[in-house]
Automatic annotation (TrEMBL):
GO molecular function, one term: oxidoreductase activity, acting on CH-OH group of donors
PANTHER family: 2-HYDROXYACID OXIDASE 1 (PTHR10578:SF107), S -2-HYDROXY-ACID OXIDASE-RELATED (PTHR10578)
Active site (UniProt): H276
FMN hydroxy acid dehydrogenase domain ranges (all copies): 1-381
The protein's required cofactors: FMN
Keyword entries, A-Z: Flavoprotein, FMN, Oxidoreductase
Binding locations of glyoxylate: Y25, R165, H276, R279
Protein source organism: Cognatiyoonia sediminum
Alphabetical list of InterPro entries matching this protein: Aldolase_TIM, Alpha-hydoxy_acid_DH_FMN, FMN-dep_DH, FMN_HAD, FMN_hydac_DH_AS
Name of the protein described by the UniProt record: L-lactate dehydrogenase (Cytochrome)
Keyword Transit peptide: no
Chain residues that bind FMN: 78-80, 107, 128, 130, 156, 252, 274, 307-311, 330-331
Amino acid sequence: MPIITNIDDLKRLHKRRAPKMFFDYAESGSWTEQTFRENTSDFDKIRFRQRVAVDMTNRTTKGSLLGTDYEMPVALAPVGLTGMQNADGEIKAARAAEKFGVPYCLSTMSICSIEDIRQNTSAPFWFQLYVMRDEDFVDNIIQRAKNAGCSALVITVDLQILGQRHKDLKNGLTAPPKLTPKTLLNLSTKWSWGLEMLGTHRRTFRNIVGHAKSVENMSSLHSWTAEQFDPALNWETIAKLKENWGGKVIIKGILDPEDAKEAVKAGADAIIVSNHGGRQLDGALSSIRMLPKIVEAVGGQIEIHLDSGIRSGQDVLKALAMGADGVMIGRAYIYGLGAMGEKGVTTALDIIQKELDTTMALCGKRNISDIDRDILLVPEDFEGRWT
Ligand SMILES: Cc1cc2nc3c(=O)[nH]c(=O)nc-3n(C[C@H](O)[C@H](O)[C@H](O)COP(=O)(O)O)c2cc1C
């Protein structure tokens, strides 16, 4: 077993262990992947101010999100098909999150269902909703999330239509994989993945199959999802969903100050500044670049979380210092899961916490609540002049 010291090590192992179509599904952005690349490279442009001779004893990374205290203000983002990266992946990720003390968010497009997570964990988790045309399905899944005691509904608003990721088309992505000569050849090199997958019955979209009209098996599911994401989604629908849910609502996929203001009007408790990890609008600016303007527009009115591009505890600290109240990580924990299952997710969280803690200390800070813009050196033209 190689010595794992950073998130990139987990990514290399994930690539080796998971079938190509699923690793590629995670490791891709839409079209040219410009936004996907800039999500990470823009973090690199921000630097830290080293401070010395500050008492660094009694440090903590603890922070709160939506009124609940966590080990650090970092949540696991909703990621579709997580249970294809590693058998029962959503259950493993949710367990790792619970043991570590951070929130887990389950995707609508997960392999394990809301009920699977409820039965296999005890901490409340967040549920991410894709708004579908089938209103009965939406009402029903909201009720299922309520029954499972989910503590927040995360409504994703940046995927009314699907961004094109070339690799998924070229690989013929399906869950479970269709056994073509090409995939069989690749699967023949992924024994441990295959054996674990044979050991579980959770191999399809269990939030959907059996719950949506006319989706009883995989073949009908594909046409259903292509037809079902609701292109008519608007702020009125979102306000109604908030009413129907009756609890905390987080709006995910905000990248513009005007939309952030709309989210406040619609009654959101928090927003996630996000471009879906560069998987939707290629050519959009990175989340970290857009963050300051969004903080200026709605900061103090609701919580502002950020995702897209976070690969280290240093990135977490940069986002917090730029004004985010919390962050979500997507690929950073998926690499861990694909590499080593639950243990890999825990390793990813450990790495991020250690990097966050050490960097905080070397910047002269002991508490998350003390983090501010002052610890950073940001290029004057970081946000850019766009007209
Ligand atoms: C493989 C993959 C699948 C995703 N599936 C979903 C999803 O089902 N629902 C959702 O709201 N976001 C989804 N996202 C976006 C993530 O929630 C998150 O916004 C993104 O991963 C953050 O960027 P990062 O991966 O650079 O951390 C997905 C992202 C990835 C990489």
